[in-house]
Amino acid sequence: MQLSDFNFQLPNHLIARYPTTNRTDSRLLVLDGQSGDIQHQQFNDLSELLNDGDLLVFNDTRVIPARLWGKKSTGGRIEILVERIIDSQRVLAHIRSSKSPKAGAVLHLHQNANSDETMATVTVVGRHDALFELMFDGEKEALSVLNSIGHMPLPPYIDRSDELADRERYQTVYGKKDGAVAAPTAGLHFSEQFIQHCQNKGVDTAFVTLHVGAGTFQPVRVSNITEHKMHAEWLEVSEQVCEKVRLTRQRGGRVIAVGTTSVRSLETASHSGELQPFSGDSEIFIYPGYQFKSVDAMLTNFHLPESTLIMLVSAFANREHVLEAYRTAVEHNYRFFSYGDAMFVLPQR
């Protein structure tokens, strides 16, 4: 398939720069991947689409304040985006600068892009392809420094600086494991009260972990999508999750993935044909033709044109139906991307 097969026209004003006042205030487009039928609802209506015995699978990663600013010892300004925490002192990161720093270089970190006061320092240990390994100096741990002077890594299409409110709103209410540099955005619509409301209806919940990387925003650079190589992201699917999925299937319930990251987690753990515990890196690339093994429905936001995420949804619900749903969403002024509205997607069978 060609990259252009997943393109659509999106007016700039439909990109959501800010979240709704309340998490559950978003709109919900419901797409039947078999028939192509579309319904326009509100996110709060999701509970009416769930059945007693269904299982909602969430991604419990937490976004770290991964964006840092500073200077090289030579005076050149730098911008750092942490991609992965290796241990308490070391991280892998992207560095934007006029000239790439070399191993042994000391980088001075500031409170923000306009500050010159050194708040912490890191040393460049080496380079791994596009990523730099950095060692945080002194007794401060990497995560402590990030929480102190780091900024929330809002996606590039949210063309504004991060604000204090983003520390809470660009984070799910159930996230508990630090490590992501992008939010699992379908989960941003859930409040604790709404999750409890679903559970009171007899809907079960389970939690996987996938630390979303900056590669999720990288464009596909090949015309033939089968030639695309996915970035690696760390994920974990526990035995408890596998058991909940098995019990859900036994009682005739549906496994509903909240977000494409939950889809990728479950499908990675099902690579043998049967869902099994998994912990490690995944480079799974799901596009039309893929046979889903563990997901019966999904909740997701609206994704970028020609992105791997719209390809994943197209694999689940028929590319033509998905693109028609996107065209309809544009016509009805749905809000797009991370802080935007949601879709509840039923599969093509």
Automatic annotation (TrEMBL):
It catalyses: 7-aminomethyl-7-carbaguanosine(34) in tRNA + S-adenosyl-L-methionine = epoxyqueuosine(34) in tRNA + adenine + L-methionine + 2 H(+). It is an enzyme of class 2 (transferase). One of its GO terms (biological process) is tRNA queuosine(34) biosynthetic process. Pathway: tRNA modification; tRNA-queuosine biosynthesis. Its EC number is 2.4.99.17. One of its GO terms (molecular function) is S-adenosylmethionine:tRNA ribosyltransferase-isomerase activity. It comes from the Bacteria. Pfam families: Queuosine_synth. InterPro entries: QueA, QueA_dom1, QueA_dom2, QueA_sf. GO terms for cellular component: cytoplasm. It is found in: Cytoplasm. Keywords: Cytoplasm, Isomerase, Queuosine biosynthesis, S-adenosyl-L-methionine, Transferase. Belongs to the QueA family. PANTHER family: S-ADENOSYLMETHIONINE:TRNA RIBOSYLTRANSFERASE-ISOMERASE. Transfers and isomerizes the ribose moiety from AdoMet to the 7-aminomethyl group of 7-deazaguanine (preQ1-tRNA) to give epoxyqueuosine (oQ-tRNA). Monomer. This is S-adenosylmethionine:tRNA ribosyltransferase-isomerase. The lineage of its organism: Bacteria, Pseudomonadati, Pseudomonadota, Gammaproteobacteria, Cellvibrionales. The gene is queA.
